[in-house]
Amino acid sequence: MDAATNETARYESFQKGRWYKIRMRVTEKGLMGWIDEKQVVGVETKGRKISIRHEVELSRPLGVSCYSTVSGLKEIKLRELTKAEAEAAIKAPELPKDEESKPSKKQDK
After folding, report:
1. What is the pLDDT of residue 101?
2. Pick the residue with more confidence: 89 or 99?
3. Cβ distance 92 to 86 under 8 Å?
4. How far apart, in whole angstroms, are the C-alpha atoms of residue 40 and residue 33?
5. 55: exposed, middle or buried (C-beta count within 10 Å: 0-12, 13-18, 19+)?
6. What is the pLDDT of residues 4-25, one digit of tens each?
7. What is the C-alpha separation between 65 and 59, in angstroms, rounded?
8. Where are the domains positioned within the chain?
């Protein structure tokens, strides 16, 4: 199922000219993502097939893409989790638990 139609789909409004802190965490148990400090994605991946759209296939194994907009990247940091962080993430991934973290259907204005 495409990300535009699965439980990770989101419609967010962003301020032009403002930089946002984007953070992703990928563990054996799931995928988590934040915009600034707000968690916007939390999906358990065990038993699921994860794939990407053919348009971004060349960006594998790690890539960033945007749709119908312009984006930029700065201060990119990539690190492996420490053993303690990885063990904690496997035991209890930071998946959304409240209504605020669920996908919204709010359209940009």
Report:
1. 42
2. 89
3. no
4. 6
5. exposed
6. 788 888 888 889 999 999 998 8
7. 9
8. 22-92
Two tokens at 109?
A: 């204005």
Q: Which residues contact 107 (CB under 8 A, 6 or more apart)?
A: 11
Report the side by side order of strands in the sheet with 30-35: 22-26, 30-35, 38-44
pTM assigned to the model: 0.69
> What does the H/E/C string look like for the chain?
CCCCCCCCCCCCCCCCCCCCCEEEEECCCEEEEEECCEEEEEEECCCCCCCCCHHHHHHCCCCCCCCCCCCCCCCCCCCCCCHHHHHHHHHCCCCCCCHHHCCCCCCCC
Query: Are the CB atoms for 70 and 14 separated by under 8 Å?
Result: no
Confirm if 93 and 30 have CB atoms less than 8 A apart: yes
